[in-house]
Amino acid sequence: MAVRDSEERVRFLGYNPANVKLVAYVTAAGMAGLAGALFVPAVGIINPALIGIVPSIEFVIGVAVGGRASLLGPVLGAVAVAWAKTTLSEEFPAAWTYLQGLLFVLVVAFLPGGLASVARLVRRRRRPPPDPAPVSPAPTVTPQQVTA
């Protein structure tokens, strides 16, 4: 998070942001490779049609719907998008892609933190507002202070 938010500050503290980015990239690539290796036994077959722009867009929409700021967000987004795809594609087979786009636009517009931020928003709304600080009365000036 520090490298994402303020790369110069991390460099000033003595860390090399390039190394942090490299470790993050290698970890993500390793996890993607593992997921790809586990995909074939789960589905039973793989073909080039499954590796295209549409599945990539679905992954991005899943992350956006769930929220990218936490590990729980993309999981929630993947489940929500998969559930919506299954139920809505049965009812509206020709319009599912439009509904998926609408879901993406609505979440980005009205819930920028994704589904993972709903709990934080609910907690914030339940919490009573803080009491305002007591205001001290203005000092009064007496006639003796004016002549002094």
Automatic annotation (TrEMBL):
Chief location bin: membrane
Low complexity composition-biased segments: 138-148
Keyword terms of this UniProt record: Cell membrane, Membrane, Transmembrane, Transmembrane helix
InterPro entries: ABC_transp_permease (IPR001851), LivM-like (IPR043428)
Annotated region described as Disordered, given as residue ranges: 126-148
GO CC annotations on file: plasma membrane
Coiled coil: none
Keyword Transmembrane helix: yes
Topology within the bilayer: Multi-pass membrane protein
Cited Pfam families: BPD_transp_2 (PF02653)
Domain of life: Bacteria
Transmembrane regions listed in the UniProt entry: 22-47, 59-83, 95-118
GO molecular function, one term: branched-chain amino acid transmembrane transporter activity
Subcellular location: Cell membrane
PANTHER family: HIGH-AFFINITY BRANCHED-CHAIN AMINO ACID TRANSPORT SYSTEM PERMEASE (PTHR30482), SLR1201 PROTEIN (PTHR30482:SF4)
Name of the protein this chain belongs to: Branched-chain amino acid ABC transporter permease
Organism: Phytohabitans houttuyneae
Source species taxonomy: Bacteria, Bacillati, Actinomycetota, Actinomycetes, Micromonosporales
